[in-house]
Structures are given as structure tokens and as C-alpha cells.
Amino acid sequence: MARDDEVRINSGITAREVRLIDTGGEQLGVLPVAQAQAIADDRKLDLVEVAGTAQPPVCRIMDFHKFRYEQRKKTQESNKKSVATALKAVKIRSRTEAHDIAFKTKHILRFLEQGHRVKVSVFFKGREITRPQLGRVMLDRVLESISNVASPEGEPRMEGRHMSVVVVPSKASSGGA
Could you give all domains of the chain from N- to C-terminal order, each with its CATH number? Predict the structure, then answer.
């Protein structure tokens, strides 16, 4: 169906004849638009054009405002589901100490338990960029500590002055969340 502002209803339908479908989905045949409008008015419902390009145009008898409300609810529900898998980010320096790594790992685990994907990044300052293997060791240490609940989406890669990898909840652990 077209967007709400493009849908023609009641007197906005310009065709002379329409193929009419009632509320139960049963075809009532090809009728003049005035007769179809009269049937819709008798039932205290709207005449809604659902396929304007067909010959003749297809119209359905329905409560248009209720239909539009249900469509909006469906789109809101689908938007809620898509927001649930947001990408969270955790930043680490290449010279971060063990206790701080453990603290950051707890945050990563919490995000993964909530079902989020997590981007773990190791940042390099100054001359640290000449030793990316330190960042790789740091990422490997983090990935090893969360390997029972998550798996990396790919290999860690350099992007400018940081090395990052995206981790996702593993199949077994995401079922309990």
C-alpha cells in the first residue's frame, strides 16, 4: 500500500468504477464509485483505494483510522526490535594496565549479555603507532577473556591511529539474555 498521504479515501477516489472488497476480504464485484461509497457509508466505514493503478482500481471497505493506527504500531514495534542490537564501543590504550583491562572487560560482558554488538578499539598515541603488535596483544587478551560468551566478527584491523574488532554475543549465550 502507498504512504498515508498518498492513499485516497472516500471522496478522494477519482475513478468511475472500482473493484470492491468488503471487510472480510470478499470481492463484491465492479461497482460505480458512488454505489461503493454508499455501501461503505451504510456500514459506517471508509472506502479506501488500495491498488490505484489496477484496472479498475481496487478499493476496500475498512476503518481507515484504525488501519493507519495498527500500521504505525507495527512500524514502532519493528523499530524497537532493531534498536535492541546497537553497536557499543569500548576504548583501550595500548599501555592500559591489567586491572583497567579487567574493568573494561566487565563492561564488554555487560553489553554482550544485553545482546549488543561491541566494538573494542585500542588507541595509539604518539610513537606508539610504530608498535601495533602491542595493540594486537591487548586485543587478543580481551578477546580471550570474553571468548566463552562472544566471538569476533572478523580479524582486528588498523583504522588510522587505532586497531579495532567488533565482537558479537555467541549463539549459546544470547539465548539466555
Answer: 4-79 (3.10.20.80), 84-174 (3.30.110.10)
Q: Are 165 and 139 in contact (CB under 8 A)?
A: yes
| Residues 18, 105: Cα–Cα separation, whole Å | 64
**28-52, pLDDT tens digit by residue?**
889 898 898 999 899 899 888 888 8
Which residues make Cβ contacts (< 8 Å) with residue 30, sequence separation at least 6? 17, 18, 19, 20, 56
Contacts within 8 Å (CB) and 24+ apart, 29-35: 30/56, 33/59
User: d(Cα 21, Cα 89) in Å, to the nearest integer?
Assistant: 52
Q: Which residues pair with 9 in a beta bridge?
A: 48
DSSP-derived letter for residue 157 is E
Task: Report the C-alpha gap between 71 and 102 in whole angstroms.
Answer: 46
pLDDT tens digits for range 62-114: 988 988 898 899 988 888 776 556 789 999 998 889 899 999 999 999 999 98
